[in-house]
Amino acid sequence: MPHIVVEYSANLEDHIDVGELLTSIHAAAASHALVPLAGLRTRAMKREQYVVANGDARNLFVAVIARLNGDRGQESLLEIRDLLMAVCSDSLRQIREEQPLALSVEVQAIDAAMRINDNSIRDHYEELR
What we know:
By secondary structure, the chain is an alpha/beta fold. Helix content is 33%, strand content 26%.
């Protein structure tokens, strides 16, 4: 059930391939033992209208929000947070050196009693069962 949303300023596309960033984030999350690949969803939300800090048009932002079952425990959620921050920092290192960039990573625990999942992905891929 992990959902990862990467929200970013439109001007980020002038500097990197956002699809590659998403793939890297997805792979990093999937590398954690408590993140089931069959339930992992990673997506981007490009923001056309935004103001960052002093409003300078060169300013960029990337905000990663990962929503996961809180039953994994705080230690595991912190590990996942740190994995995501590491891959984002690595992927965005050169941009950060050249442009003003605000990067944030947040993990939100989902109360399992407050969600319902219906996922047939495992039915279609033997390796995900």
